[in-house]
Amino acid sequence: MVHVASSCGPHATDHQDHVALAEIELCSELMIAASAVDDDARLSPARIDEVLKVDHGARVPPQGRHAGADRTR
Length: 73
Hints:
- It contains two helices and no strands.
- By secondary structure, it is mostly helical.
- The termini are far apart.
């Protein structure tokens, strides 16, 4: 096994690993859902949102800002 040093610190790699695993899991869920539909059918946008657990009412924080970040600056 080869270990590559990260210039962003040791926790950056752990975070990237968790994000990559989450993305793989979501792709797997989509593939499973797609394999369950009829041969000529496609997943509807609503079904994709359901599989991905998308909440259209959820507020996405601005890019670069983490949830719970101090907003008094």
